[in-house]
Specification:
By secondary structure, the protein is an alpha/beta fold. It contains 15 helices and 19 strands. It has two domains: about 140 residues, Leucine Aminopeptidase, subunit E, domain 1 (3-Layer(aba) Sandwich), CATH 3.40.220.10; about 325 residues, 3-Layer(aba) Sandwich (Aminopeptidase), CATH 3.40.630. Keywords: Aminopeptidase, Hydrolase, Manganese, Protease.
């Protein structure tokens, strides 16, 4: 299977709703408090079965109901009265018999959207290297849910998950480029790659970080027009396909998950897929600096001074702080055409994970209105993030005695903030810009979210763009 084939899993069942013409059995969602009302609405066979089995609708418990003629008449799935986990109802898919199901419980529009998307996301499996059966129960799109849009969101999430889950031996810069090219071709986007001498000249920090690897570094540039005069939205994604730490080598434990260090690129491509599938009236651009931070005679060194595309010089305090270097050149290019909105995704700092844990990406922006939009969209679609400060008082930490900037300030304090401040030096003043420091990994399985690669903050951004421009 090629990487393009693996990425195409995003378009395959079970990430689609059941055929609307297929008969679907009723699935009732109940809490222990609402169970009597649900039971009262059922045919006699269902009510008697609940009484006979002592079913109590405890959270996560499912009961399949008879139809009185030896068949299946429906099911009930229990939810906690104070359920706070997103997509909790999606776990029902694991317990139901094969076939089409419909949610019979009345839901408000946002709850229906969440239940529908959660069901699709729960069906995701990364099956490139082994066969792992997905839930066989399929969901009919609830009334009022935009099935096409929801399937497009699920496909974007699945694309990002596939890319993050693929190990580095099958996803280096070459194949990340292939996956991005395949996405561009599928939606009629233009596609360009800067590499070789042009990269050395125009994007010297990308070139320096990636020059030690077997596969050469490059800058991927995808463009798509949903409207010829639409607002310019540029996404930048960190595409470090594997990070050894460079000459400042990571310990073994720190290297174990570094296949996911291209998670920012996966997020950007996942959001791009959503935007293009939805046909939002934007002029979309996706920039992905993609490298492997490897060790060889050509590796850049601690103490080296690199010149950036912007002309600023950077002293290398630590070769393991390479993500901000490749992003800096890409952000400089992005600002050269003055986008209306610039968002970068990057698995950038362990400091953000220490502060916020694996589930909360850190959001940095100087734009209070943009931060509020992100927060509202994240809450609306259950794709949370948390704003951290671009505290200018820490700018002095970036000083170098021999260059304009140091890429890794000594002391280790405020690491996520100083990384964001470093990036801000390469964003033109006045640009509406947000930096998302993401983890892109689910350490534990949950409804709608299997363990492994994850798109973070992408659904929030898509909701923001849809509400602004949809």
């Amino acid at each position: 299977m090629t990487l393009s084939d693996a990425a195409a899993q995003a378009d395959a069942a079970p990430l689609r709703f059941a055929d609307p013409d297929e008969p679907a059995l009723p699935l009732h969602l109940a809490t222990q408090r609402s169970l009597p009302q649900v039971a009262a609405s059922l045919p006699d066979a269902g009510r008697r079965w609940i009484e006979a089995t002592g079913y109590d609708a405890a959270a996560g418990r499912c009961i399949v109901l008879p139809d009185g003629a030896g068949g299946v008449g429906g099911a009930i799935f229990g939810l906690a009265a104070d359920e706070t986990r997103p997509f909790a109802a999606a776990a029902a898919a694991d317990a139901l018999p094969a076939g089409a199901w419909r949610i019979a419980t009345p839901l408000d529009p946002e709850a229906a959207d969440e239940a529908a998307l959660g069901w699709l996301l729960h069906g995701y499996r990364f099956g490139r290297y082994r066969t792992e059966a997905a839930p066989r129960a399929r969901l009919a799109a609830p009334v009022g849910v935009d099935a096409r849009r929801t399937e497009a969101i699920a496909a974007g999430v699945a694309l990002a998950r596939d890319l993050v889950n693929t190990p580095a031996n099958d996803l280096g810069p070459d194949r990340l480029e292939s996956a991005a090219r395949s996405l561009a071709e599928g939606f009629g986007a233009t596609f360009d790659v800067v590499s070789g001498a042009a990269l050395e000249t125009g994007f010297p920090m990308i070139a320096a970080v990636g020059r030690a690897a077997a596969e050469p570094p490059r800058l991927i540039d995808l463009r798509w027009e949903g409207a010829a005069d639409g607002p310019r939205v540029t996404l930048v994604g960190k595409g470090v396909c594997f990070d050894t730490g460079g000459l400042d080598l990571k310990p073994a434990a720190g290297m174990r998950l570094m296949k996911k260090d291209m998670g920012g690129a996966a997020c950007a491509l996942g959001v791009a897929r959503m935007v293009m599938a939805a046909g939002l009236p934007l002029r979309l651009r996706v920039l992905i600096p993609t490298v492997e931070n490897a060790v060889s005679a050509a590796a850049f060194r601690p103490g080296d001074v690199l010149r950036s595309r912007k002309g600023l010089t950077v002293e290398i305090g630590n070769t393991d702080a390479e993500g901000r270097l490749v992003l800096a050149d890409a952000l400089t290019l992005a600002c050269e055409e003055a986008p209306d909105l610039l968002v970068d995704f990057a698995t950038l700092t362990g400091a953000a994970r220490v502060a916020l844990g694996p589930d909360l990406p850190a959001l940095f922006t100087d734009d209070d209105a943009l931060a509020l939009e992100f927060a509202e969209s994240g809450a609306r679609v259950r794709d949370p993030l948390w704003r951290l400060p671009l505290w200018s008082g820490y700018d002095a930490m970036l000083k170098s005695p021999v260059a304009d900037l140091d890429n890794a300030p000594a002391g280790g304090m405020a690491g996520a903030v100083t990384a964001a401040l470093f990036l801000r030096r390469f964003v033109e003043p006045g640009t509406r810009w947000a930096h998302l420091d993401v983890f892109c990994w689910a350490p534990k399985a949950a409804p709608g979210r299997p363990m492994g690669g994850e798109l973070q903050a992408g659904r929030a951004l898509f909701d923001l763009l849809s509400r602004r421009h949809g």
